[in-house]
Amino acid sequence: MKNIILGVTGSVAAYKAADIANNLTKKGYNVEVIMTGSAREFITPLTFQSLTKNKVYYDMFEEITPKDIKHISLARKADLCLIAPASANIIGKLANGIADDMLSTVVMAMNNVPVYICPAMNTNMYINPIVQRNIKTLAEFGYHFIEPRESVLACGDLGTGALADVDKIVNTVEAHQWRA
């Protein structure tokens, strides 16, 4: 069974991450969810725990024991990391090597694990040159992006920034060339 880390960040699209977790779990993947504090403002950990049958992680200091430092053990067991939705905040943290929460710390601790990032934010945020530079930086480091789509956004604006369709995200994960 392949292990997927699903990172959920602060975006109104966080509710769609529940569909992603549910679809991947039903397809036989072991999905471990890591939520940022902002994500927990939009959707509860209990939703993901119910769908994946796994504990949901968000406090990087909760699970430290001499034999299991959770951000390291999660990073080691991951076959793939999917961040959906990915806020401008998490993209900026990763592009600049900032590891100050459970999700960014786990991603920084990963070695040779493919990371797929699904941006979701307001159009003006998405096209901001700083965000675009951070995306370019991560792409140069080998991170993969599942581009947002154009839609009427939660704020009422029409533009690019809506989370990619759930089916597209799940199909991209399934099409990944898994290591043996």
Automatic annotation (TrEMBL):
SUPFAM superfamilies found in the cross-reference section: Homo-oligomeric flavin-containing Cys decarboxylases, HFCD (SSF52507)
GO CC annotations, alphabetized: phosphopantothenoylcysteine decarboxylase complex
Listed EC numbers: 4.1.1.36
Keywords of this entry: Lyase
Pfam families registered for this protein in UniProt: Flavoprotein
Flavoprotein domain span: 2-174
Enzyme class, UniProt record, top EC level: lyase
GO biological process, alphabetically ordered: coenzyme A biosynthetic process; pantothenate catabolic process
Record InterPro entries: CoaBC, Flavin_trans-like, Flavoprotein
Gene3D superfamilies listed in its UniProt record: Flavin prenyltransferase-like (3.40.50.1950)
Alphabetized GO MF terms: FMN binding; phosphopantothenate--cysteine ligase activity; phosphopantothenoylcysteine decarboxylase activity
Top-rank taxon, per record: Bacteria
PANTHER family: HOMO-OLIGOMERIC FLAVIN CONTAINING CYS DECARBOXYLASE FAMILY, PHOSPHOPANTOTHENOYLCYSTEINE DECARBOXYLASE
Protein name listed in UniProt: Phosphopantothenoylcysteine synthetase/decarboxylase
Source organism per UniProt: Ruminiclostridium cellobioparum subsp. termitidis CT1112
